[in-house]
Amino acid sequence: MDALLAALEEKKKRLDSYRPLPPELVRNLDEWFKVELTYTSNAIEGNTLSRAETALVVEKGLTVAGKTLREHLEAVNHAAALEWLAKLVSQGREAISERTILDLHALILQHIDDANAGRYRSVAVRIAGSMAVLPNAQKVPRLMSELVEWLQQAAGSPVLTAAEAHFRLVSIHPFVDGNGRTARLLMNLLLLQSGYPPAIIRKEDRLRYITSIEAGQLGRPLADYYSLVCEAVDRSLDVYLSALDTTLEDQDLSAPAGEEKLLKIGQLARLTGETVPTLRYWTREGLLTVAGTTPGGYQLYRPQMAQVVAQIRRLQVEERRTIAEIRQILKERE
Question: Is the distance from CB of 176 to CB of 116 less than 8 angstroms?
């Protein structure tokens, strides 16, 4: 777990090095995550709208033939909850209260079950197919107050804190319906407030997700649950970093007047007609020299490396030289 958390922190540092992010990129990612989070969170609860159908409902306001009104409302409501949640990110964790959680829940159930939207349950509930025993309804207000109090004092990894907040909320099960959606929204609010992207619990991970939570509710270790959340955050970090790579790859790296402009590996690849993996391999083998790195840790090359790339390819193809032989020839030509 420590290694996984360290890897997440390292990727977050890379992401932070690009801040402030390009506004157009942020808008595109926000729209993508809104649809993806809405689709997956609802799918986990049994909503049958596909990813493409969810996008039609959320982005275009269209209805899908053969789908229920409730399924449409679940998509619209979740998207609205995400938009409302985005306004809370800049306020920090200290702004999260019971009212925050109740308001999130109210958005999830609006026009679906207005009588219970934003209200704690007053009846006993069970999770279908689970052996876990949930708290008596009379205990819910006190347990929710304790949850918020714990949240304001929680220290350590922001990812684990967000995951634990989710686990505590679904284990209290304070609402008649909508507990999972509300818990995932709370978890992602905490992640966003800490500078992480939201965690997407995929539909294909539904069984593992439910089973790992039930294990914790029955007193067994939560290691698999925490791993699942960390993996979800890791995938989202990759989405951001990949999008940034694609966006920034075509932008010139600025250099002061009179200084040489350096090339990122993708730019060098396009200039020479070689693939990025090939250039990375030649770099590892000492055939290409790295002139520096970006704040995000990406290697930079001088434009003259394009000539070296051409020499390497010629030595391989025309003279059938080995990597070791090419390395020696290049060294002698320095």
Answer: yes
**SS3 category, 300:** strand
Report domain extents, the chain: 2-247, 263-333
- 79 CB-near residues (< 8 Å, 6+ apart): 34, 35, 38, 58
Provide the residue type at 217 as one letter.
Q
How confident is the model over 197-207, as pLDDT tens digits? 999 999 999 99
Contact call for residues 248 and 18 (beta carbons, < 8 A): yes
Question: What does the pLDDT look like over 127-181, one tens digit per residue?
Answer: 888 888 999 999 999 999 999 999 999 999 999 999 999 999 999 999 999 999 9
**Residue 107 CB contacts under 8 Å (≥ 6 apart), including other chains:** 77, 80, 81, 84, 117
The structure tokens 């030289």 sit at 321
Which pTM was predicted? 0.76
Residue 20: asked if its preceding bond is cis (omega within 30°), the reply is yes
| Phi, psi of 290, rounded to the nearest 5 degrees | -85, 130
Class of domain 2-247: mainly alpha
Hey, what are 4's tokens? 């996984």
How many CB atoms are located within 10 Å of the residue 322 CB?
Answer: 10
Cross-strand pairs, 293: 299
Residue type, 307: Q
Instruction: Collect all residues with Cβ–Cβ distance below 8 Å to 149 and sequence separation of at least 6.
Output: none
Residues catalogued as catalytic: 173
**CATH of the domain spanning 263-333:** 1.10.1660.10
